[in-house]
Amino acid sequence: MKTSILKPNMTSPTVPSTSTPRKPFAVPAVPALPAPLPPRQPLPSASIDRSKPMLKLGLDVHLEFIVAVVQHGHLSPHAPRKFTRPELLEEVKRWSAEGLQVFAVQESCGFGFVLHRQLVDAGAQSFLITPVVLNGKRKTDKLDARALCLRLSRWLEGNREELAPIRIASEAEQRRRETTRRRQFLKRQIRALANRGHGQVAEYCHQKLPTHWWGPRHWKKLSTTLDDWLATVLEKLRELILAMEAQVRALEAQMLARVKEIKGPKGLGELSLGILEAEVCDWNRFSNRKQVGSYTGCCPGEHSSGGKRRLGSIDRMGNARVRSILVETVWRLLHWQPFWKSARKMKFKLLDGPAMRKKAVVALARQLAIDLWRWRTGRATLGDLGWSCR
Question: Domain spanning 54-156: which superfamily?
Answer without folding.
Answer: Ribonuclease H-like superfamily/Ribonuclease H (3.30.420.10)
